[in-house]
Each structure stands twice: as C-alpha cells, then as structure tokens.
Amino acid sequence: MREINAQDVTAAVKRLCMEANSYLPADVKGRICDACQKEPWALARNILGIIRENYEIAEEKYVPICQDTGVACVFLEVGQDVHISGDLNAAIHEGVRQGYEEGCLRKSVVRDPLDRVNTRDNTPAMIYYDIVPGDKLKITVAPKGFGSENMSQIKMLKPSDGLEGVKAYILKVVEEAGPNPCPPIVVGVGIGGTFDKAAYLAKKALMRSTDVRNADPFYAALEDELLEKINALGIGPQGVGGQTTALAVNIEQMATHIAGLPVAVNINCHVTRHQSMEL
Amino acid sequence: MEKRITTPLTLEQVRGLHCGDSVLISGVIYTARDAAHKRLCELAAQGKELPFDVKDSVIYFVGPAPAKGDQVIGSAGPTTSYRMDAYSPTMIALGQRGMIGKGKRSPEVVAAMKEHGAVYFGAIGGAGAYLSRCIKKAEIVAYEDLGAEAVRRLEVEDLPAFVIIDSEGNNLYENGRKEYLASLK
Questions:
Q1: Which domains does chain B have, with CATH numbers?
Q2: Which DSSP string do the residues of A103-127 spell out, in sequence order?
Q3: A69 touches chain B (CB under 8 A)
Q4: Which of A142, A150, A249, B46 is deepest in the core (most CB within 10 A)?
C-alpha cells in the first residue's frame, strides 16, 4: 500500500486549477493554428487570429484564457494500491479554493441551483473517481465554462434509430447550439451505458487529446465523419459563417441495455482546458 | 475595414451600422449580466432612477475575472446573451442603444431594437485575455454584492466587435452563414 498525503493532493489541485486556466493544451493550440491557415472566410479567419493571440497573451501573462474560469471538474484515477491519509474530498475542495483565490480566477459557483448564492471560493468541485490498478494517483483538472455546458444535450434513442439516428442527433445538437457555445467547439460524445453513464462518457471524451482518435477503428472513423459533417454546416467561428465550426469530435462508447441507445453530447468551446498530474 | 465608434451611441450612429460591420468601440460602457439586469428592471418598474444613465448607453454582458498584478481588470470576454433576453427590451425602451455579447437573441429583443433603434454587437467569446487589454479603466457603480456580476463602468479603447443584429433586424448569424455556404457553390 502506497501512502499519499491529502495535503499533496491539495497542492496538486491548486496548481492544476491555475495552470489549466492559463495554458491551453498543445493539441488544441495546434488545431486553432491549422484552422487559421485553412479557413477560407475572411471574417472567420480574423476571429481565429484573435483567438490565437488571446491564448498567447494568457500563456505569456499567466492570466485566464477566458473570464469564465468554470466550475472545477476534477477527475481522479486512484490506484487500488494507494492509501490517502486525510480527507481526500476535502483536500480537493481546498485545492480549488486556494487555486481560484491565488490565481485570480473568477468564482462562478452558487451553493444551490435555486437560491443562487455564490460560494465565493468556487467550491465545491465536481469530483469524478475511477479506481484503476497500480499505486499511482492521477489528477486531471478541467475548468468547465457554462456557455458551452448549457448547449449540451442528452437523449435516449431507440435501438432502431441506429447509427444514422446517432449521427443526426449529434448534428442537431451542434446546429441548435449555433453561435452560443463560442465556436470553434470540441464535441464530446458518449454513446451507450445508462442515462448518467452516457453523460459521464461525453464529459470524459473531452479529456482526451484532440490528436488521439478512438481506439476502435469504427468509432475513429465516426469521429472523422462527424467532424467533416459539422464543419459543412457553415456555422463558423463565433457563428459568423465559415468552415471552422468544430476543432474535433471525441467519442467514448460502452455496453448498454438491449432496449436502449443513450447518446449524450457535451460541448466545449475553443478554450478546451485540462491539465493532469500524477502523484 | 473597421468602423471606429465612440460612446455614447446615438440613434444616428446606430442607423449607420449594418449587420456584418467590424467595429472598434471606444468610450464609456457599462457591464451587466442577468442578476444585475434583474435588479435594473425592478428599479425601472418601480419608477426609480437607475445607477447609470441608460440613454444612448452600451451595455457589455460580462462578468470579468479579478484583476491580477497591475491589470486594470481580469479577463473580460462576453457571456451568452440569451440570458438577458427577458430584460433587454425594457432596457432598450429606456434608451439603451447598444449591447455587446455573444449568441442568439429572441424575437422580442429584435423587435425592441427595431422599434427604438438599437444594435447588438458580438465580441469574441473566449477571448477574455485579449479583450481585457482594451479596458483602460474599471470601477464598480452598483451591486458590489454580486461580485463578478456587479455593474461596472468601463472605459474602453478600440474594443473589437462586429454587428450581429442591426437596427433593421438583419442578422449576421443567418446572413453570414448563408453567404459562406453560397460561396462554396
């Protein structure tokens, strides 16, 4: 059994909150740069240029890429041979509290969905646990903005809807979102599981590098096909028209019930942020 | 070529702006999101004075990040505008001329824009670090308890935006996409 001190988790989460909000992952930057070269529509190209300059400023000055520094989604892959000394959940929330304060990040969390009183320290974090083999603890912090989160949807399709139904639904969600989620977007898709598992898979899909395709060749091809179809919609950066509506489509799939075909679409904006660390 | 515009924004200026125009905005603008809009409209309903002069004003839908180091203001890009749709017609009827945000608006907002003469600008969502550099001065004028959502008076210089919906109701989200798709044929 390997011991990990909860205080080390706090320090890691704090650092990851700050870094994730200022440093865009290299794969996302690469896709934005590519789009700057390939976008044929003039206004769209200008917008992509500003989006690129924006992440450069954020990185250089170590300031948030976007003012919506999100709700902190914290993913933990806990090795089954790890023992945490101290309160792990509390340690994560404390890391978020410290990171958002010290990093001058916006506090965007309300304590209750209906009374809407701001907690003023961006806690609680949204925590997701996965138990894995080994004696390591991997922490990923993904600040999730709500301009794009609000445009996400889930639907329980029928098995008879099949592949075509899945494709049509994903395109419908992107179409309905239009300019609202700050395109160019990254589209996370979860197919299968249960109602809640599909949504979880869609969010998890957004944690994967946009340069890594689904391990299953069938789903990898589906990711490519959907990206092409989304970019043929013409919505464009910020919805002003153009070729660059999405930077990537990431799909995660799993087993499901004989009667069901759940599909969840979780949308991210071009500020697709996440940073990881292994303890 | 960008059009340079300076606030306060008059009806005459608004009439000269057309869907798809790129603009650089300078002068004083005010920030408000849904929580502040709710309070502003409640004041208006009670016939009370608002904390800033709404006539010919431009409101930026933004909840900035806190300032860091020597910054005037933290990252400050637009929030999604549809959450203000319930309130914007009231504000436009009171004399507001410009809105800066991102995303779609309701038919009711567009109708008020056409009736009273107002314009909806889109700023680049997610470009908060870039846009904060155009803000030269920031001070809270009302609702400090709302934190990021307080009403701020901003002095801006050459804030880049484009006309999404003009005072005749022409919409860049519809027209721009149509024109781009037509260009492929």
A1: 3-183 (3.20.130.10)
A2: TT-----BSSTTT--B-SS-PSPEE
A3: yes
A4: A249
